[in-house]
Design a protein that fits this description.
It is a single chain. This protein has 124 residues and is α+β, with helices and mostly antiparallel strands. It has one domain. The protein has three helices and six strands; from the N terminus they run E-H-H-E-H-E-E-E-E. Strands 1, 2, 3, 4, 5 and 6 form a six-stranded mixed beta sheet that branches. The radius of gyration is 14 Å and the shape is globular.
């Protein structure tokens, strides 16, 4: 994607905090149903303090590109914010400023450490 760059969303932003909270809810499951979801999403079982926002610009750039590619986005030249939370060997990613083809909904995507798509989740 020529002329397109991706930056990290502010780690204290509401969307990053929401994504981290969501990830903790499944990586530290507190119910049988949460455990089922964790297994289905291939999320690791890890301590809550191991789920952290990503602030490394190179990781956010790779995550943004992987997210845009997984959604077949055709982005105009510009810089787009990407919210990224790391949970063990998984990245939970959501575009903050790139337009979505989903109308009012946004999707959150889970990638492995090589930014291969694991799953997509519609919402928040």
């Amino acid at each position: 994607m020529r002329g397109v760059t991706f930056t990290c969303a502010d780690s204290s932003s509401e969307i990053v905090r929401t994504m981290r909270s969501w990830a903790i809810g499944y990586t530290v499951p507190r119910s049988p149903r949460a455990e089922e979801v964790r297994v289905g999403l291939h999320l690791p079982r890890i301590a809550a303090d191991s789920v952290q926002p990503v602030v490394d610009a190179s990781v956010c750039a790779r995550a943004g590109l992987a997210y845009a590619s997984s959604h077949r986005q055709r982005l105009a030249t510009g810089t787009y914010q990407t919210a990224v939370v790391r949970a063990g060997g998984r990245y939970i990613v959501r575009s903050v400023t790139a337009p979505e083809p989903l109308g009012e909904w946004n999707s959150v995507v889970e990638f492995d450490e090589r930014f291969r798509l694991e799953s997509g989740i519609l919402g928040f």
